[in-house]
Amino acid sequence: MPTSHDPAFPLLELTGITKRFPGVLALDDMRLDLRAGEVHALMGENGAGKSTLIRVMAGAHRPDDGVLRIDGQAVRFASPRDAERAGISILYQELNLIPTLSVRENLFLGREKRFGPFLRHRKEHREAEAMFRQLNVSIDPNARCSSLSVARQQAVEIAKAISLKARILVMDEPTAVLTSNEIETLFKLIADLKAKGMGIVYVSHRMDEIFRLADRVTVMRDGKYVGTQPIGQVTRGKLIEMMVGRKLESEFPKQAAKLGEPRLVVKDLSRGHGVRGATFSIRRGEVLGLTGLVGAGRTELARLVFGADRPHRGSIELDGRALRIRSPRDAIAAGICLVTEDRKAQGLVLGRGCRENFGLPNLKAFGRIGFVRRRLERAKFADYVQSLRIKIPHQDERARNLSGGNQQKLVLAKWLQANSEVILFDEPTRGIDVGAKQEIYLLINGLADAGKAILLISSELPEVMGMSDRILVMREGQLVAEVTDVAGVTQEQLLTLAMPRGLE
């Protein structure tokens, strides 16, 4: 990794960056500077312009105005290859590896080691091993990338950046799908890269990560520069205020619950080793939190209740009536919905319009003698666009073009129209900015106030503790603890309960 750098200049500097798209001013006089050996956090709500700024740094977008400098020298990128040559590598949230190729083949794709017409596989193998030793990770260069965990695939991407002589690494939500152990491994890797003089732009919605990793933080809002602060001189509340443009009274605005009788009653629900003997109930107006480590069986339990998987034994009752749920269709008809963990792959048809996505589980209500009553569908959807404050240019906008928070609201709108009485939220705020989180939390409050029964599954312990009336802890497929004194429990206590036996 090259270390030559003139300390008189920032390693990377962007000033006056402006980017327009038809009808949209995506970046407006944006600025950012990065020093060698620094982790500089970039924060902002969904739609603030972070992705556009990353693409400018990557050479994928040419700015309409402004200057990008490296070591004080102005540069212009005509393509991502130009940015690579200048020492900039981007680690996107969607990893850019070919899964069917080996680690070695991915590392040297397009720049293979050759001796005349022959490929020098052994030389590539040795260089790949040297890269991984430099990163202090153990990865077989001959392993197929599809066999690696997400964390190891990220390490391969970082190794590729090192092989390209990168001095600037931009990381876009790198921990979004990692386990807690994998996150720790990534953080150690970032510390090593920082110590070797690499400059890192770190994009994340997770406040705890920002305060742990970053030296400075820059906030942008609506495509504009808001401010840059040393991380030691800014509070969590101040960062939130900078991002949303207003002061939030509480990060978790939980309302006092008016609990009624049990609505959803689950007894001995089981499927193999994934879920074993799950028994619990959710009362009218209650938010029941469910937490545990990745792989504990939380999502698997929600899928059983929703009928996405068939249980081997157990029973489900709603309002005292026994249910026979053999498919999601049965669950929807009974009044149970699942806001899935992966809204893009399982919650929405990304290539279709927002209105169509809204109408899919409601075709029976909107249909008449085989035809969909489009006028009624549009009118109902318009009501939810207004009440949930879904930001879309028009109802037929493709779902993939929405920000994460608006995609989540779209998923919720279709289930509210379906008159769902039990709402299973699986990681409802993953990948969503703090402002959109607030809106989701307020929606959860409103649903609870209307008497719905809510299961809130989350790996973010502050979220579970801040929004739940009761908390269940799952470990190795079993519900192992119930916490009724939510105000009195600590994150450490919940983690201890969630840890596998023998690791407590």
Structure description:
The protein folds into three domains: 12-244, 3-Layer(aba) Sandwich (Rossmann fold); 258-335 and 420-504, P-loop containing nucleotide triphosphate hydrolases (Rossmann fold); 353-419, no CATH class. It is built from 18 helices and 24 strands. Helix 14 packs across helix 15 (404-417). The chain is globular, with a radius of gyration of 25 Å. The mean pLDDT is 88.
* Mean pLDDT over the full residue set: 88
Q: Strand fraction band?
A: 25-35%
Number of domains: 3
What is the name of the CATH architecture of the largest domain?
3-Layer(aba) Sandwich
Approximately how much helix is present in the residues? Answer: 25-40%
CATH topology of the largest domain: Rossmann fold
Given the helix and strand composition, which structural class is it? alpha/beta
The CATH H-level superfamily of the largest domain is P-loop containing nucleotide triphosphate hydrolases
Low-confidence stretches: none
**Principal-axis shape:** globular
Give the C-alpha Rg: 25 Å
Q: How many β-strands, per DSSP?
A: 24
**What's the CATH C level of the largest domain?**
Alpha Beta
The main sheet orders its strands as 6-9-10-3-11-12
Helix count, per DSSP?
18
Profile the largest sheet.
6 strands, mixed
Give the N-to-C terminal Cα separation: 40 Å
